[in-house]
Amino acid sequence: GNTMSREDFFRKELTTELRRVEAMMRKDESVRRRSTTMLIYGPTRTPGSWSPPDETANAPLATGDLFVERDGFYYYRGRSDDMFKSAGCWVSPTAVEEVLRGHPVVAECAVVATLVGALSVPGAFVVLDREVSESPELIGELRRHCRERLPDHMCPARIRFVTELPRTSTGKVQRFKLRERSPA
Predict the structure, then answer these.
(1) In this structure, are residues 106 and 128 in contact, taking their beta carbons and an 8 Å threshold?
(2) Which sign, positive or negative, has the C-alpha torsion 22, 29, 148, 81?
(3) How far from 17 is each of 11, 38, 41, 45, 91, CA to CA, in Å?
(4) Among 2, 112, 121, 132, whose Cα sits 20 to 30 Å from the Cα of 150?
């Protein structure tokens, strides 16, 4: 009579936890204005320890995924381990990539930290649409496109055109390989 399917149980638990996180966010308005790390509570969380359960078994799990809440929706901003500082401010590669992909000639792109002298700055690897040829003028156009939409510290200081981005077997961009190949 009173049984609940596993799917319904997890849906109920996840909904409860999301409401709890939303309530905490509403109490602290400053959290709503910046990226927040996703925390997972309850039975939907997979314990990441091989050791016997202890008091940390019920602690929240920080996923490393960054979100910002706007108008009741959560927007993915990237992974905390992909973030880097430029000019003393945090850069979300995902935010820069969204702007670059908004340009009509950009098929896909990836942004990583690159060094210019001793400074860490955004560097972009850009795959162009097939009909478009790379040129210094196009680099200038992409930089202007970014400057009109992003704070200065997030605008790519280096842009390199590539034919493809390195990916894992599941299709994720391998940023570590791009960091090894600094944009020109």
Answers:
(1) yes
(2) negative
(3) 10, 11, 7, 11, 29
(4) 132
